[in-house]
C-alpha cells in the first residue's frame, strides 16, 4: 500500500500460458483477436465531469485531456463483454525530442491515477516536455467501471487486538465483506487481476501508437510494473519502481514483513513528538510518548473512544497511527501528533472533537463512504494470490510475533477478506525473473514496504539498478520526498535511458 493513495495496471501477447488460454509475452500480432481494440481511436476530451469535480477541473486547468480505451473484460474471450479504462494525458510539448509515453501508477492497489500526471510533471521539470504523461484509473478503479461491493467500511484493514474474541469478530467481518463482493460483483471478480491490468496497459500502448512504453510505479505499482516487464519484456522502455514490493511476497499476507518496521517508525516519530511535549502533551521522552500511545490503545480496547460522531475501538485505532508513519517530514509528523493528541483527549476525558484530517480518516475507516476503494483493493489482492483460509493460521502468526510487534503485528498479520474469497485466482501468480533494465528506488526506513523488498526486486530484475535513500522513513521517494539527489538521478535516467553504472546511495 501507499500512503493515502490507491492503484493498478497492464499487458498482452502471442503464446498460450498453460491451459488458461491467456495471451502473454512481447508483441501482439495481427490475428490475435485484439485488432478491433488496437485500432480504436481515443476521443480526448475535457476531464471535469461536473462542477463538483475538483480533480477534473485541475487537470483541465493544466492543459491535460481525458479519454477512454475499450478493453476486453476477459482476454480469453476478446469478442465478449468489454469495459472501459479511463486515462488522462498531459502531452509533452517538445515533439522534436519526444521520448514517448510514460504510464503512471500510484499504488494501492486501487489507487486512482488520472491526476498523478500533474505532480510527476512537476518532478520531471523541463524533461516532462519530452514525454506524454499518461495517468490511468486501472480496471474497476475510479472512473474505470468501479467495483463497489456495498461495504460499510472504506478499508478491510483492521487490528486483531489482544484477545481471541476480538479477533473472531474480525474473522466474521472479513467473511461478510467477501460475501458481499461475491453476491454483488461475482461475475466480475475473476477478471480483477494485476495480469489483466498489465494486459490493459499493453493494449493502451498499442492504441497510443507506441513501440515501447515507459512506466513509473509506486508501492503496489512496482509489482504491477514488474509483472509488465515479465509479460512484455520487449515493450518496456524506461521503468522506475519506487517503494518496491518483492513479487514473491506479494499478496494479502505480504504486509507482515512491515510490522517490525512500523514499530520502529512509531519510536522514531515518538522522538519527534517528545521534543514538542509542551505543544501536544504526549510525553517528554520517547518512552513516555510510546506509553501514551499504548494507553490510548488500551482505553480503546476497554471502551470505544468517542471522537466527534465516531466510535473508535482497538481494531481501528492503530490504522490512524499507521497513516501518519509513512513519512518523517514535519507536516506528516504534525498531522499524526494532532491525531494522537485528540485520541488521548478522548481516552482521558470521555470524548474529543476531531480536526478535519482526523475526521476524514475516521470517515474512511469506519463508514462506507469509500466502499469502492476497499472493494477494489481486496478484489485485486484476492484475485491475484491465494492465502491461507484457516483463522488459526493468522492468530498463531500474530501470537508468535506479539512480543516484538505488539502494536502493528496484529494489524499487518491479521486476516483479510481473501481468506473467505469464493473465487480462486484463474492464473498463477507471476514469477518475475528477467533482464529488463529498470531503476528500483527505495528508502532504508520505509515502514510500508521494507527495504529488503527493494533488494529482492532488484535481484529478480537482473539488469536493474537500486537507488537508495539512506536513513529516511518514507514510502515513495521520487518527486514526493523532496530529495534533490534522488530526483536528479531518476530524471537523468529518464532523459538518457541509461542506468547508473552501480547502485548509488543518496
TrEMBL record:
Gene3D superfamilies attached to this UniProt entry: alpha/beta hydrolase
Entry superkingdom: Bacteria
Record domain Peptidase S33 tripeptidyl aminopeptidase-like C-terminal: where: 416-506
Keyword Signal appears in the UniProt entry: yes
SUPFAM superfamilies per record: alpha/beta-Hydrolases
UniProtKB keywords: Hydrolase, Signal
GO molecular function, one term: hydrolase activity
Signal peptide: 1-29
A Pfam family this chain is assigned to: Abhydrolase_4
Protein family: Belongs to the peptidase S33 family.
Protein name (record): TAP domain protein
Amino acid at each position: 500500500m501507499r500512503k493515502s493513495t490507491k492503484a493498478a495496471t497492464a499487458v498482452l501477447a502471442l503464446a498460450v500460458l498453460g491451459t488458461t488460454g491467456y495471451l502473454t509475452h512481447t508483441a501482439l500480432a495481427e490475428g490475435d483477436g485484439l485488432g478491433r481494440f488496437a485500432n480504436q481511436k481515443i476521443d480526448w476530451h475535457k476531464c471535469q465531469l461536473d462542477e463538483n469535480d475538483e480533480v477534473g477541473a485541475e487537470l483541465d486547468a493544466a492543459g491535460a485531456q481525458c479519454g477512454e480505451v475499450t478493453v476486453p473484460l476477459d482476454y480469453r474471450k476478446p469478442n465478449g463483454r468489454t469495459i472501459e479504462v479511463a486515462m488522462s494525458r498531459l502531452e509533452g510539448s517538445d515533439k522534436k525530442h519526444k521520448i514517448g509515453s510514460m504510464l503512471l501508477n500510484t499504488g494501492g492497489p486501487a489507487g486512482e491515477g488520472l491526476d498523478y500526471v500533474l505532480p510527476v510533471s512537476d518532478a520531471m521539470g523541463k524533461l516532462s516536455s519530452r514525454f506524454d504523461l499518461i495517468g490511468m484509473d486501472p480496471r474497476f478503479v475510479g472512473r474505470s467501471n468501479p467495483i463497489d461491493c456495498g461495504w460499510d467500511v472504506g478499508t478491510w484493514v483492521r487490528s486483531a487486538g489482544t484477545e481471541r474474541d476480538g479477533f473472531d469478530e474480525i474473522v466474521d467481518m472479513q467473511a461478510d465483506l467477501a460475501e458481499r463482493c461475491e453476491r454483488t460483483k461475482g461475475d466480475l471478480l475473476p477478471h480483477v487481476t494485476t495480469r489483466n491490468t498489465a494486459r490493459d496497459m499493453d493494449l493502451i500502448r498499442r492504441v497510443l501508437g507506441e513501440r515501447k512504453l515507459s512506466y513509473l510505479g509506486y508501492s503496489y505499482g512496482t509489482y504491477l510494473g514488474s509483472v509488465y516487464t515479465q509479460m512484455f519484456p520487449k515493450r518496456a522502455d524506461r521503468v522506475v519502481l519506487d517503494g518496491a514490493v518483492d513479487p514473491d511476497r506479494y499478496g494479502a499476507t505480504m504486509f507482515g514483513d512491515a510490522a517490525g518496521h512500523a514499530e520502529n517508525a512509531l519510536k522514531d516519530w515518538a522522538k519527534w513528538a517528545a521534543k514538542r511535549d509542551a505543544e501536544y502533551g504526549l510525553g517528554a521522552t520517547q518512552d513516555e510518548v510510546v506509553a501514551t500511545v499504548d494507553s490510548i490503545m488500551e482505553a480503546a480496547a476497554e471502551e470505544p473512544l468517542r471522537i466527534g460522531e465516531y466510535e473508535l475501538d482497538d481494531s481501528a485505532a492503530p490504522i490512524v497511527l499507521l497513516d501518519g508513519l509513512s513519512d518523517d517530514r514535519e507536516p506528516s509528523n504534525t498531522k499524526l501528533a494532532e491525531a494522537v493528541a485528540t485520541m488521548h483527549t478522548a481516552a482521558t476525558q470521555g470524548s474529543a472533537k476531531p480536526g478535519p484530517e482526523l475526521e476524514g480518516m475516521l470517515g474512511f475507516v469506519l463508514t462506507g463512504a469509500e466502499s469502492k476503494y476497499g472493494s477494489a483493493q481486496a478484489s485485486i489482492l484476492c484475485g491475484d494470490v491465494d492465502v491461507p483460509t484457516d483463522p488459526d493460521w493468522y492468530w498463531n502468526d500474530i501470537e508468535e510475533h506479539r512480543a516484538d510487534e505488539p502494536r502493528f503485528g496484529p494489524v499487518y498479520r491479521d486476516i483479510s477478506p481473501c481468506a473467505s474469497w469464493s473465487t480462486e485466482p484463474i492464473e498463477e501468480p507471476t514469477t518475475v525473473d528477467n533482464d529488463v533494465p529498470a531503476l528500483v528506488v527505495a528508502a532504508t526506513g520505509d515502514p510500508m514496504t521494507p527495504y529488503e523488498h527493494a533488494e529482492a526486486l532488484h535481484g529478480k530484475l537482473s539488469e536493474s539498478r537500486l537507488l537508495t535513500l539512506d536513513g529516511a522513513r518514507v514510502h515513495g521517494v521520487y518527486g514526493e520526498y523532496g530529495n534533490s539527489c534522488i530526483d536528479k538521478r531518476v530524471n537523468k535516467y529518464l532523459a538518457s535511458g541509461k542506468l547508473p553504472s552501480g547502485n548509488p546511495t543518496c
